[in-house]
Amino acid sequence: MITRELRLPPSVSAENSESNYLTQPQQKSTSGKTEKEQVSENYRKATFTKRHLFTLAGTFLLLLGGAFSVYLLQPQFQEMNLGRMNTLGGMILIFVSSFLLLFRLGFLAYISRLFFRYKPVSSVSDEELPTCTVIVPAYNEGKQVYETLLSLTNSHFPEEKLQLIAIDDGSKDDTWDWMKKAKEHLGNRVAIYQQPNNQGKRHALYRGFNLAKGEVFVTVDSDSIVEKDTLRNLVSPFVTNKDCGAVAGNVRVLNNEKAIIPRMLNVSFVFSFEFIRSAQSMLGSVLCTPGALAAYRSKAVMDCLPEWINQTFMGQPTDIGEDRAMTNMILKQGYHVLFQRNAYVLTNIPEKFSSLHKMFTRWERSNVRENLMMSKFAFKPFRNGSKSGTRLLLLNQWMHMLTAYPLFLMMIVLLVLHPVLFISSTLLSILIFSSLPAFFYAKKYNISEAFWAYSYSIFYTFGLFWITPYAMATANRRGWLTRELPQKK
Questions:
Q1: Domains of the chain: residue spans and CATH
Q2: What gap in Å lies between CA 451 and CA 447, rounded to an integer?
Q3: What's the predicted TM-score (pTM) here?
Q4: Given this model, what pLDDT does residue 14 score?
Q5: Which of 38, 216, 28 is nearest to 128 (CA)?
């Protein structure tokens, strides 16, 4: 199975590193524990401060108040609905709303069926593992890049089959100093490079891909920590499935104890990855391999690398969405893209609203661009076997995009004409539909943290509802938006 070795020189062991992250075993193959036992260790019962309790209490007062208001205002709701049915515009609105609701419920039932069929690929033996190159691009990351590199060298992965490359993309802080410190500590186990100036994550990865020697390329964000079995679990599907071109890792929030936004997003991430991507994996069509942790068959990367690095949108070079773009180009080649639930990575996310909405805007702009790209090949015979599931996933993406402006407009109109009815019905909807991710998290981890699903839904509905319409209107804009150092006044 292995055609060549990297033959990296021996180096200093990282077993006694200065890293202070949590490194829990993941699969029974090396740790002697099942995935469920390991998961419970990863996410211990959370501690709650008075601020947290106040936030959750306020959340449920709002939701229960909304539900009670809907009950009290039934005559007004009936009057409003009867009024709609007496006009052509109202009938169209009711029809479209009913169709969208049925589509969403049908799609949810479909992916739920796929989720229950999903099982991650078990880790293969050391002899079967492919040679692997891990690339860590970094920009203004500071000490965290040091922790990231140490976590990678602590992996349960044969040293002679692992090449580790770290690239400083022209950072303005002390990132390069921390990379040099990692080099001093790890010796030849890591190779470090520095871009002459900041060129963007895509160009840093491009340099890494061209330096890579492994049969599988793994990309890891410099603000992320991988667990000990992550790498071997992540690359095992390439051994067991010859059609596998890329694998997405399972992303969790590293700083979920520090602020309320990370705690809320932690629950959202679990649902997004373990539920949604598990279902997508059953179709061989995970739509995005996350930058925090992804693996690619080297041949698939090299075959699309010139197109990827020279990608443009509306005549301008593309400097965002490099992960979604790479995923699209690998799908286009006919490969399958899978998800490994047992390949965990913990990553930092924004703790403040200003940084969070910039991150979401960047993601949504990327989705607009890459949905357009995917539409160019998804409805053609781009690979053998069934393609209907992949097309349905894309249609769901477009449904989200195309309804953004009508829903935004309807929200504004209802807020003006029927503010109490709109807010109360919205809160009741949040209470109902947020119960799915909350129940999912509670069953998988713990009940107390699951309640953040409700807080997040309120936060997103009333604070971030504008992201998708805004991103669609500004999809041609460039810029990473985050990672810049604070400006001195």
A1: 1-414+427-437+449-483 (3.90.550.10)
A2: 7
A3: 0.88
A4: 34
A5: 216
